Amino acid sequence: MKFKFNDTDPIYLQVANQIEDAIFNGSFLEEEQIPSTTEISKNFHINPATVLKGMNILVNKSLIYKKRGLGMFVSKGAREIIIEHRKELFYDQFVTDFVREAKNLHISEANLLDLIKRGYNK
Prior knowledge:
mainly alpha; 5 helices; 2 strands; 7% strand; elongated
């Protein structure tokens, strides 16, 4: 995990994003325990309340859950939840603008698909 203390994103969001990325890339697997609030706060000199705030974001997204007395664990299906969410973000942040610009350039749907295929084949 890497935290940018001078970044515009609050530390608790960085905590949530770092753990989410680790779930996404397979560093933390389903039903596997993640580092505790105390471990993260000690290793990175972050206030435990800040770490917990980031973890609670992931609990609310159903990506992790708490086993009483044992710690936090990755939820079943967490990676799929992240993938679906990121697909929606991809559509919202890239595809809509991409298609709008193609229309502005009078690129037909067929030509746009050809361009995409050409990009995949590079």
